[in-house]
Known about the structure:
Elements: H1 4-15, H2 19-24, E1 29-34, E2 39-42, H3 44-50, H4 54-57, H5 68-85, E3 87-96, E4 102-113, E5 119-128, H6 130-163, E6 176-182, E7 193-199, E8 205-212, H7 216-234, H8 240-254, E9 260-270, E10 273-281, E11 287-289, E12 295-297, E13 314-320, E14 325-329, H9 331-334, H10 344-355, H11 360-373, E15 383-389
Antiparallel strand pairs: 1-2, 1-5, 3-4, 4-5, 6-15, 7-8, 8-9, 9-10, 10-13, 11-12, 11-14, 14-15
Amino acid sequence: xxxxxxxxxxxxxxxxxxxxxxxxxxxxxxxxxxxxxxxxxxxxxxxxxxxxxxxxxxxxxxxxxxxxxxxxxxxxxxxxxxxxxxxxxxxxxxxxxxxxxxxxxxxxxxxxxxxxxxxxxxxxxxxxxxxxxxxxxxxxxxxxxxxxxxxxxxxxxxxxxxxxxxxxxxxxxxxxxxxxxxxxxxxxxxxxxxxxxxxxxxxxxxxxxxxxxxxxxxxxxxxxxxxxxxxxxxxxxxxxxxxxxxxxxxxxxxxxxxxxxxxxxxxxxxxxxxxxxxxxxxxxxxxxxxxxxxxxxxxxxxxxxxxxxxxxxxxxxxxxxxxxxxxxxxxxxxxxxxxxxxxxxxxxxxxxxxxxxxxxxxxxxxxxxxxxxxxxxxxxxxxxxxxxxxxxxxxx
Length: 396
């Protein structure tokens, strides 16, 4: 708190203030004008800002000091508002100084009336807005840079994510294969879901579907490693379990702080259909709808890849005959929920029952659409689906 002497000195200085000096050297510009805008009084602060001489400014119309656009705005909007409402608040104008430079200012004004209510004098207060304008411009520039950065990040995320998915599902002889992906949220962040379909031998095809822990650049690195490690391993080993062991070892040795789940299938033709051999490492198990409409879950989950020194990787096999459908999916499908029940395997089964006669691609899209509908159209996690269908004999 100030002491008594300081308080006394403050009030003494305030009492000694000359009202005329306070008006002339106020920290804002003062103008008084007749109702036609003719300036009749102006303070030294406004003169210092604009560079005008008092004698040359008094007698001019305030209208004439404004830039062309502001002059139109003042005549058509500001002045009529002043005469209707009796005041103006924070009207932005550009005043042309004696040197010809534009001076951004904020103007407040009051209309003084006589006892009969007739307008007499316009009193205006103007504030230098140059620093405020510079600040606002910097804010706009910063916002623009942020929006551009966000757009670049979104494009990068989309580009990276596309690199983890085949541009088009390749044609597998004797099979109908479709795949669909939907990123979480607005898609601005790279997710960890991926899938791939590729040839591993003369008549053998591999399909991998996986989910890497985390999101963003760190997950993108591991996702790329997972996809291409599976491709490389599948060329040298014939067992799906051995392929996932190779991926597990690559994660443990190179990225010990992360893990993923993965499902890898090998498919080769048989006279009666296709043999499916698969291995799972902690991934949701495939769902199979047989031609007769029965639903079964294939295999057992196994352990996450890259989490422990050794992995428990499960392998299984089955024969797919004409009309059979297998769906591979990430947990973004089964865990979709609107706060009530989960979409689950039962949701997938319902889609398969309703869409069994469609193509594999149409079924994959339908599963994604149904999982999204279960959460009001907002994907809370990445969603990836691959559908493998053995066409009925008449369609092959």
